[in-house]
Amino acid sequence: RLGTLGTRLGGGLRRRVRLTWERLYRTDDRLHRCMEDHLVRRRHLLDSLGARLDALSPLRVLARGYAVPRDEQGKVLRRIADFVPGRRFQLRVQDGDVPARTEPE
What we know:
- 58% of the residues lie in helices and 14% in strands.
- The chain is α+β, with helices and mostly antiparallel strands.
- A three-stranded antiparallel β-sheet has the order 1-2-3, with no helix packed on it.
């Protein structure tokens, strides 16, 4: 009788362990799929944000042919009044700076 109980108990434990392992395997598989999906979504978001940031980049504007004038301290010259006759400034273009000077009137 004790041997029979031991056999039944052993069989029950093996089934229980097998079921637990199967459940754990399925959970692990779902977790991996979930994480992969999450990473793919995050990668797409990062790519999208990177493209938006690149479109707003001042360097991208310069690549389209614009230039940015700056005084000797690096301050951007935005208005005609900022260009004092005879004063030197730098003109920032896509691939570097060009020294410039306003002509006296």
